[in-house]
Amino acid sequence: MNKPILLILLLFCLNTSAQNSDELKLWYKQPAQKWVESLPLGNGKLGAMVFGGVEEEIIQLNESTLWSGGPVKPSVNPEAFSYLKEIRTALFQDENYAKADQLSKKMQGVYSQSYLPMGQVFIKQDFHGQVPTDYYRELSLERAMFTTKFKVNGVRYQRKMFISAPDQVMVIKLNADKKGALNFILSASCQLKSRQNIENKNELILSGRAPSNVNPNYYNPTNVNPVTYEDTSSCNGMRFQFRIKAVNKDGDIKHTDGQQIKIENATEVVIYLTAATSFNGFDKCPELEGKNEDAIARALLTNALSISTASLEKRHIADYQKYFKRVSFTLKDGNSDEQNQMPSDARLKRYSKGVVDPKLEAIYFQYGRYLLISSSRPGSPPANLQGIWNNLLRAPWSSNYTININTQMNYWPAEVTNLSEMHMPLLNFIEDLAVTGKKTAKEFYGARGWAANHNSDIWALSNPVGDKGQGDPLWANWPMGGNWLARHLFEHYKFTGDKKFLAEKAYPIMKGAALFTFDWLVENKDGYLVTAPSTSPENTFFDKNKKPQGVSVASTMDMSIIRDLFTNVLASARILNIDQDFQDSVSQKMKKLYPLKIGSKGQLLEWYKDFPETDSLHRHASHLFGLYPGKEITPDQLAHFQAARKSLEIRGDDGTGWSRGWKINWWARLKDGDHAYLLIRKLLNYVDSDERSKGGTYANFFDAHPPFQIDGNFAGTAGMAEMLLQSHNNYIELLPALPKAWMTGKISGLKARGNFELNIKWVNHDLQEAELTSLNGGKCVLFYSRPFKVKNVNMKPAKSNGGYLLAFDTQVAQHYKITLDN
To answer: Is residue 446 part of a domain?
Structure first.
């Protein structure tokens, strides 16, 4: 492909209004019985899972800063670095991978802390056994609003709920269509140490404290309490509080035993809920240096009460829709009217049996965007393994930040689906991680710069986890997490063109990661720079003794991530015109990096040798990092491109939820839309709440790892976008992996690198028209598989690599519509 030429392009957008609101929703004919049937609300800080019960409504609460533990302690494992030389000797001289594995355990630190549930709210209405009728439960994706409706004894009841980002409050509005028919008891509970009291008869306050330590759910040493509250060596866990206030227009309110609020003979009641913790930053003890959670929650509630309910709702919807409505996605099919009348769980089950339902796929796409807006807002922590929704004291994998794939996957849709602001929590977190990572690099690896391993938490933990020897090195010992996260900084720049961000935040952090990598790389006998020890996360191979091993040298993932980092940091230095000596060092080291290799089956090798795999269908396929999210493997490198395809064919199409999500993106990059679509159907396979055998999607459309992990939702949304638009290879490609199933459709508001916004319409699998907006001006090269033309530009596309490429060189403020040249 020819290099793009410089151009400046400024155009206007198509109308980016979302689909009709009657389509953009999840709805059900019955209340949720289990957590993965309930529906999520959130504003980045406060999260709620709403069950929609009739006689007992359950609202499970989270606050995104409520974690166990406190700041990372100094000198976690001061002896760690002393084992590195011996490990390398075992690898290079003896090829004794088992010995390297055992020695690697001595380089481990402590486990991450856990994301915690805050509590539950209960609304109990006693209908004396009368059976409700006309039941309806809905989550509006367009308004971020939950609604339950039902009828009992001739009275229609409605409960409407939302969580406002502008006003940091959850609002629950209950009403009946018969005067005085509302009678209910409002109460709360909590799994953590807490106490409750009532103020002014209508305000319930629950205050508590998080544990100082929670061991991962998979780590259960004998005679050790996995949940502890006292930590005399540093500081105790953070404080938290949530406040619930009921305001009635009529009827009576009173409290019972200081634990419940009782509402009688009301017609309309509005419940306000606010919450806060003492978290004051990753490096501050939440007990001794924490914020005043009582003052914060109280002030938020006072503010919310000063605003009318109608205004709170209006402000919430306006704030939410300014993000959500940027992108519209419509797929046409002939059966949608009938299917739109079906409840979402029944529709998903029907889809899982093979029924064609493109509009359901479009809803799933937008649901991913809804979840990102709801779980990741500027000022909040990044979305964790479960976004912000967790009901368990010891959540699966601590509901932490797993940075060998899952945390990164959460943010794949952020830039391309026009939610760049929602990327900021992760980008800010990386800045914290670089601080603790500097200590990790020095203590564990004797290196400059900063490094982070497999797991992290709100305290920016960066050491190899494993409780100093209890973790398996195939996942615990992996210092490439920081290097991978660094690419998010450069991607944000590529999509936004924000040079201030690049200069002040991104570049210094990327440079620090590169400096660590300089010191971590060693030269092998062939003169290549390699990583040692090295793993391909969570996967193993057979050694010469036919024993499974995880630790070796120069895994493909390691080397691909390093090439990606070096490429991005070098490009950044050149853009900023700084650090020439450092640029030279990066360039020199890049030339010596151990290269990609192709194996005996024509596959891209996962390890530095063609080792037999212990599990050829393993859920991880980390060696394909260079295909996606990286950009090292493209059609321009045909041999590696074909080898990556062969590796995917060998891996197969099954796997956990997030694994299927990653495969959608890989097949999209391979330009095989039909295979990517096959993975969409597998990702959207209905999974019962008790089923643990395979990945898919629960009734509430949460990703089933299983159990629930939100990364599959985000990867699915990102993969659909990648099928329709790609911009990683120095040009913008329209409909690069359009599947046969998506015969006719349109999408507006997608973003391409260079800060271009695109609207694309296709009919019968062919591009019909597209519009672009260049928000910055700059380079733009378009690519499509068939000839196309641009109005008002007297320039024919040049054929290249089986398609047609057009480089623009126009003036600012001109409008262009791209159409297929028939």
So the answer is: yes
Would you call 491 helix, strand, or coil by DSSP? helix
- Amino acid sitting at position 553: V
Nearest to 12 by CA among 819, 772, 790: 772
For residue 355, give every residue at least 6 positions away whose Cβ sits within 8 Å of its Cβ, in sequence order, or none: 335, 339
| Residue type, position 9, single letter | L
Q: Mean pLDDT lowest for which of 442-451, 620-629, 802-811?
A: 802-811
Angle of helix 673-683 relative to helix 657-669, nearest 10 degrees, comes to 170
Q: Collect all residues with Cβ–Cβ distance below 8 Å to 504 and sequence separation of at least 6.
A: none
Do 669 and 628 contact (CB within 8 A), yes or no? Answer: yes
Helices (H) and strands (E) in the chain, counts: 20, 37
In a 3-state reduction of DSSP, which class is residue 255? strand
Tell me how far apart the alpha carbons of residues 369 and 422 are, in angstroms, rounded to a whole number: 10
With a cut of 90, say whether residue 800 has pLDDT above it: no
Q: Strand, helix or coil at 99?
A: helix
- Which pLDDT score is estimated for 17? 35
Final residue of a domain: which of 271, 306, 324? Answer: 324
Please determine, for residue 16, whether its predicted confidence score (pLDDT) is greater than 90. no
Residues 203-225: pLDDT tens digits?
999 999 999 999 999 999 999 99
Give, as one character, the DSSP assignment of residue 283. T
- Most distant CA pair in the chain: distance in Å? 85
pLDDT (tens digit per residue) in 155-189: 999 999 999 999 999 999 999 999 999 999 999 99
Residues 6+ apart with CB under 8 A from 508: none
Last residue of a domain, one of 621, 651, 681: 651
* Best CA proximity match to 566, nearest among 662, 632, 478: 632
For residue 405, how many C-alpha atoms fall within 13 Å in the half-sphere facing its CB?
Answer: 25
Residues 314 and 439 both lie in one domain: no
**If DSSP codes are grouped into helix, strand and coil, which group holds residue 160?**
strand
Query: Long-range contact list for 636-644, CB < 8 A, 24+ apart?
Result: 636/1, 636/729, 636/801, 639/598, 640/596, 640/598, 640/604, 641/670, 642/602, 643/596, 643/598, 643/599, 643/602, 643/603, 643/604, 644/604, 644/670
Nearest to 696 by CA among 435, 348, 239: 348
Residue 753 covered by a domain: no
Tally Cβ neighbours within 10 Å of residue 798: 11
Q: Domain span at residue 584? A: 415-651
- In terms of Cβ atoms closer than 10 Å to its own Cβ (0-12, 13-18, 19+), residue 214 is buried
Residues 319 and 420 in one domain: no
Q: Which two tokens stand for residue 299?
A: 């002030």
Please give the Cα distance from 413 to 727 (Å, whole number). 14
- pTM here is 0.95
| Phi, psi of 85, deg, nearest 5 | -60, -40
Tokens of 379: 């000022």
Q: Does residue 40 surpass a pLDDT of 60?
A: yes
Q: Which tokens sit at 557?
A: 């993932």
Average pLDDT (464-471) is: 95
From first CA to last CA, the distance across the chain in angstroms is 24
Radius of gyration (C-alpha) of the chain in whole angstroms: 27
DSSP designation for 532:
S
CATH number for the domain spanning 224: value is 2.70.98.50
* Element at 424 (helix H, strand E): helix 424-445
Residues 6+ apart with CB under 8 A from 576: 499, 502, 503, 507
Are β-strands 781-784 and 732-734 bridged in parallel, bridged antiparallel, or unpaired? parallel
Burial group, residue 765, by CB count within 10 angstroms (0-12, 13-18, 19+): middle
Residues 206 and 310 in one domain: yes
Question: Is residue 2 predicted with pLDDT exceeding 60?
Answer: no
Number of domains in the chain: 2
pLDDT tens sequence across 648-686: 999 999 999 999 999 999 999 999 999 999 999 999 999
Residue 525 to residue 93: CA distance in whole angstroms: 10
